[in-house]
Amino acid sequence: MTTDAGAASVVIPTFMRKESLPAVIRPVLDDPDTGEVVVVVDGCHDGSYELLVEWAHQDDRVKPVFQENTGEGGARQAGLEHATNDVVVFLDDDVIVEPGVIGRHVAHHAGERHKLVLGYMPTHVDPHRRPGHVPTILYAQDYAQACVEYERNPDRILSHLWAGNMSIRRPDALEIGLVPDVDLGYHADMQFGIRCMESGIKAVFDRDLRAVHVHDRSLRSFGRECVRGGEARAHLCLAFPSLAPEIEPTSCWPRGLGPFQRFLSSNWVRPVSAPLAMGTSYLAGRAHWWSVETSAARMLRQIEVNYGFAKVMQG
Question: Under CATH, which number does the domain 8-216 receive?
């Protein structure tokens, strides 16, 4: 399905994913609208770059790039700068596209400019639940709700961008830039979305551009990620105060629970509340008490996100 927009450059930032990279790249190369695959190894030495160099000898559409670690936004920017086609599709290194997705991304941009296209990437959830799988379950639920919000209110596509499967014309992306103003550590895609919104970019969400997100986090890494997410939301609130009411963590809390959540996240209570929530979730999972495991993990998330948020806001 080649269009007048030409073939796409596919940019994939990667970090410590050597073993799973082939499963991500092969379906992209199978798409006839893939002109090149720029894979940016973001400062890791797990053999990913060597694997890609060897692959490039067999298929010159594979273009490996190595750089010192700059984070997700910096890696996407490096890939963008190495890309040569007009339409650039950005994929995360744990997202596996279905057949024809790259071509459908390209088709969206035919005859149009100043447009960001967001594809669908539901999280793979094993139907046979196992202990410790709860971070992936919560992630899948959050993403599903975000997609419902995208369809209900398209303005949220850019203000709450989930960018593991998206495309934009290269000149627009270069003008806007993908490197965060502050090293967020998380939610770099949300900052890029807000920049796009301020630049007058139109966004569409299309469930037909389907890919599968292979998510895997331990409960401990899930907790650390929640802290980084809270910190990033605080930086975004400071940078974009008009959007703060919908970005800050309390915007999604059940009414009336704010004071209690802030208490659990406070500096003197969190050293007890966070390990207690994590331990409860862990033990409940081992006992197959799934509802308790899920509730405790949700509590852990709220504690850690609000802790990270408050830490930045309070200086």
Answer: 3.90.550.10
